[in-house]
Amino acid sequence: MSDDTAPQAAIDAEREKHAHERDDRVYGRTAGDEQEGIPFIGAGPGHPRLLTVAGKEAIEAADLVVHAGSLVNSEVLDAYCDGAELVNSVGKDLEELVPLMRDAYEEGRTVVRLHSGDPAIYGAALEQMDALEHEGVPTYLVPGVTSAFAASATLRTQLTLNETANHVAFTRPQGKTLDSEDDHIADFVGMGDVTTCIYLGTHAVADTMDRLLDEGVDPDTPVSVVYHASWPDEDVIEGTVGDIGAKVDDAGYRASAMVLIGDAAAGAGYERSYLYGGWANGEEPGGNDGETEPETTSND
Ligand SMILES: C[S@@+](CC[C@H](N)C(=O)[O-])C[C@H]1O[C@@H](n2cnc3c(N)ncnc32)[C@H](O)[C@@H]1O
């Protein structure tokens, strides 16, 4: 690989290009369209039924599936990758992955890249896509069900709830990748009406809760931890900022869990929305969601 096509140079060049010009495909394609190139597919949280139709069709047609190792439930691979060559991306750097996918694509093989959940959330997909695009290999994204959504479904709740949670934060705790000053979990929880969804924080639940307590967060604030949401060994641990750390430590989970903080995680404390109230019958909206609701024609 020549220097100007090495992944880092390619990423730098593509990143610079994004800052000045928009790709025509942004306006010419929709997210569900079949497109030319290598799809970067969200495999969903784990259950094979939680893959999109677009994702399933692309995987079933693939000769080569590059997947995110243990983050992708092997049941998804078993269900849809019959006969395809499977390559685990864990432990491979871009310098290895990019030529592997490029060469296969240029040989006329059907290549897919499989990420867990949705590639748009802590997926590191764009750098691979940019490096491939720079070498003339088209790429595109196929969305998936992110683990926060699988966890909320498991918990039979919503991440937004009228009066309780007006906002959702997808975040991660400080650690090797994130400096402590860039850890905003206490800010989100402190806002009071945010459901905070913590990715990549299973190993650090107790530390995270200790920091929240130091910041003065109410120890009784509900916290739900969903390990392997939608997998056969899914587990739910419920507690509070004050006691969830010890519970997760006792369970022994160090990875692969979603941590949801806030009343919405427990489905608690919410008020009836205006959607199914007087507004639905044409009456004046009486609450803070009334201003935006009239634009909505469906009851979603
Ligand atoms: C590298 S991030 C990838 C997130 C993924 N792109 C998504 O949209 O869910 C990995 C983290 O996602 C969360 N995660 C992924 N799959 C999960 C599942 N099935 N159940 C609970 N959490 C999951 C965990 O917090 C894990 O540490």
Give an overview in words.
With 300 residues, the protein is an alpha/beta fold. It folds into 2 domains: 3-145, 3-Layer(aba) Sandwich (Cobalt-precorrin-4 Transmethylase, domain 1), CATH 3.40.1010; 148-266, Tetrapyrrole methylase, C-terminal domain (Methyltransferase, Cobalt-precorrin-4 Transmethylase, Domain 2, 2-Layer Sandwich), CATH 3.30.950.10. It is built from 10 helices and 10 strands. The protein has helices at 7-20, 25-28, 53-60, 74-80, 94-106, 126-134, 147-154, 185-191, 205-214, 244-251, and strands at 38-42, 64-67, 85-88, 111-115, 139-142, 167-171, 194-198, 222-227, 235-240, 257-261. A 5-stranded parallel sheet has the order 3-2-4-1-5, with helices on both faces. Helix 1 crosses helix 6 (126-134) and helix 9 packs antiparallel against helix 10. It is globular, with a radius of gyration of 21 Å. S-adenosylmethionine (SAM) binds at residues 45-46, 71, 115-118, 121-123, 146-147, 150-151, 199-200, 202, 226, 228-231, 255-258.
Entry summary:
By secondary structure, the protein is α/β, with parallel strands linked by helices.
Topology readout:
Blueprint: H1 7-20, H2 25-28, E1 38-42, H3 53-60, E2 64-67, H4 74-80, E3 85-88, H5 94-106, E4 111-115, H6 126-134, E5 139-142, H7 147-154, E6 167-171, H8 185-191, E7 194-198, H9 205-214, E8 222-227, E9 235-240, H10 244-251, E10 257-261
Parallel strand pairs: 1-4, 1-5, 2-3, 2-4, 6-7
Antiparallel strand pairs: 7-10, 8-9, 8-10
Helix pairs in contact: 1-6, 9-10
